[in-house]
Amino acid sequence: MSGASETLPLRPSPRQRRRSAAGPRPLTIRRTVDRVVALIVFLLLWQGVSLWTGAGVVPSVDMVGKALVTALGTQAFWAALSATLTSTSLSVVIVVLIGVPLGAVLGISAFLRISVNLVVEFMRTIPPVAIIPLALLLFGPVLQMKLMVIVIGAIWPVLLHATYAVRDIAQVHRDLVASFRVPRLIAWRHVFVPSMLPSIALGIRISVTIALLISIACEVIGGAPGLGAGLLTAQYAGDLSETYAYIVMAAFLGLILNAITNGIVARLVGKRGRRSA
User: Of 5, 61, 92, 212, which residue is 20 to 30 A from 248 by alpha carbon distance?
Assistant: First the structure.
């Protein structure tokens, strides 16, 4: 009777076996096709708007493409790209080095979190663009000016997500560590940090985008070297196609930085997750 009451494992159907053998490749191909189709539709819409408004308002796709290819062959363009990439990357590193430990401390201490809540909320409301004049007075249109403005504007997603990550650590994890009297360093390394990483990763992704936007704003408004300064120079010269080319390149740079960030975060979160399992 006991053997008859046991539930036997169900065999997968031939269709399920074919799906498991095929793996996620069909889904990946479909996503790639969807993205390509969306890009083609976007370029067709762009071309249609250019024909409707005229090249003096919105240059055509081929005009912007030619301007972008021409710019890629100049040393000034690569210098501008390097300046924007340097300021964005360095600021993100500084944001992570400051925001994650400070957010963890605020997440641990309810007293500190409540005490500085008003200051944090006040600082978050300050537009980063409003800090550019002060940074220009302190440093001038150089890298330090950009780093100051970017860090002040981009640190909040990382800081807040780190705070929430520590505060929202599952109580079962805390009880498990307390019950087995796990040393604090080992508990943070193998229990708490892996559970915090997904939330912190989301904050880093947001901060990367904000850092790039503020970097270009500093270059346009503050005159610091970079893609924004190149865009402004093309605008003053009346070269609309080159202006759009710099805008397109800034968008490409944002996509590349997001892809790199997502790749690093995915590998780090997966590695930590396997270690903690």
Answer: 92
pLDDT on residue 86: 95
Cβ atoms of 252 and 242 closer than 8 Å: no
Torsion of CA 28, 29, 33, 34, to 10 degrees: -30
What is the rounded CA–CA span in Å between residue 224 and residue 145? 8
| Amino acid present at 222 | G
Q: Structure tokens of 10?
A: 């169900």
Using alpha carbons, list the distances in angstroms from residue 186 to 104, 194, 268.
16, 12, 18
pLDDT tens digits along 146-204: 999 999 999 999 999 999 888 877 566 677 777 777 777 777 777 777 778 888 888 99
Residue pair 83/225 in contact by the 8 Å Cβ criterion: yes
Spatial separation of the C-alpha atoms in residues 57 and 68, rounded to whole Å: 18
On the 0-12 / 13-18 / 19+ scale of CB atoms within 10 A, 42 is: exposed
In this prediction the pTM is: 0.80
Residue 54's H or E segment, with its range, is: none
pLDDT at 1: 46
Task: Please tell me the distance from the alpha carbon of residue 25 to that of residue 23, in angstroms, as a whole number.
Answer: 6
Q: Is the dihedral of CA 43, 54, 216, 84 positive or negative?
A: positive
Residues whose CB is less than 8 angstroms from the CB of residue 146 and which lie 6 or more positions away in sequence, other chains included: 87, 91, 135, 214, 215, 218, 219, 222, 224, 226
d(Cα 156, Cα 154) in Å, to the nearest integer? Answer: 6
- Alpha-carbon separation of residue 192 from 80, 170, 171, 181, 246 (angstroms): 41, 9, 11, 14, 43
Which residues are CB-contacts of 188 (< 8 A; sequence separation ≥ 6)? none
